[in-house]
Amino acid sequence: MHKEFSKLDLYNDLRTNFSEVEFLLDEPMKKHTTFRIGGPADIYVEPSISQMVPLIAYLKDNSVPFMVIGNGSNLLVSDDGIEGVVISMGRNASDIIIDDEIITIEAGAMLSSVASRAADAGLSGLEFASGIPGSMGGAVYMNAGAYGGEIKDVLIEANILTAEGEVKTISCEDLNLSYRHSALMENPAVVLSARIRLEHGDKAAIKAQIDDIRKKRIEKQPLNFPSAGSTFKRPEGYFAGKLIDDAGLRGYTVGGAQVSEKHCGFVVNKSEATAADVLQLMKDVDAKVYESFGVHLTPEVRIVGRNIN
């Protein structure tokens, strides 16, 4: 952290400068990730969109490291936690506004909530997202997708906060969305909100499709244990889960982490797993799959925090 600040000094200074925002000191990140894993963030905060811009400007001006997260559904946080400030786009940044076929969504809104609101309005095109346990901001950042659909299929544009502190609107085309990728991965920026376009459809049919997707998710995914969803990206021409299964790794365990016995594409926190357990398991799985099939597995889960090697 910047030499002029101790953690406590920074905490007190933030509370003075942003008195309307609640800051938490040494907040365990396992409370804010679906993996239920992770050491403490030095400081944790859930600002509104309007509070976000001045807060980030302050942190940059004072050379304080910070990280912006969504729902924490695709994160593995180090056991040693995260240095600086973790800014969560959560409940205070989750407005959803529907105007005919256009929906404007703040980055902290959950995809499942947006899909439900769209269905209630008789709007079709976002059914695929009803089972994705992530936020809109994270979905744009990684072009989230499932069941044959991706965010790029419906996205018009996103409002972002650039690394230079400028708020700007960037089109779907300029975001260069592809499989689990966006231009924001190479040019870091914070997604503030997004606009999507759907189509009017039959409300009953839309809701039936959402119910079907949620049923499939319950049947096929290990929702009874904490996880970060699909652990590895799909290698071209293969399915990660099948490679892992064919390598004999179904149920493979390191500490409290396990390759799911229900779906081998998921690593689950079966019993108070540490980040170190998960990382070792991922390393072992990649080595075994490569030994068996000559294919390397690339993490889909985002690995962050202190002393990650």
Automatic annotation (TrEMBL):
Annotated localization: Cytoplasm
Entries under Gene3D superfamilies matching the protein: 3.30.465.10, UDP-N-acetylenolpyruvoylglucosamine reductase, C-terminal domain (3.90.78.10), Uridine Diphospho-n-acetylenolpyruvylglucosamine Reductase, domain 2 (3.30.43.10)
Coiled-coil spans in chain: none
Start and end residues of each FAD-binding PCMH-type domain: 36-201
Cofactor(s) it depends on: FAD
Gene Ontology terms: cellular component: cytosol
Pathway where this protein functions: Cell wall biogenesis; peptidoglycan biosynthesis
Annotated catalytic residues: R180, S230 (proton donor), E300
Catalysed reaction equations from the record: UDP-N-acetyl-alpha-D-muramate + NADP(+) = UDP-N-acetyl-3-O-(1-carboxyvinyl)-alpha-D-glucosamine + NADPH + H(+)
Database matches in Pfam families: FAD_binding_4, MurB_C
MF (Gene Ontology): FAD binding; UDP-N-acetylmuramate dehydrogenase activity
GO BP: any one term: cell division
EC number: 1.3.1.98
Enzyme class: oxidoreductase
Keywords from the UniProt entry: Cell cycle, Cell division, Cell shape, Cell wall biogenesis/degradation, Cytoplasm, FAD, Flavoprotein, NADP, Oxidoreductase, Peptidoglycan synthesis
Record-stated family: Belongs to the MurB family.
Function in brief: Cell wall formation.
NCBIfam families named in the record: murB, PRK13905.1
Record's protein name: UDP-N-acetylenolpyruvoylglucosamine reductase
Protein encoded by which gene: murB
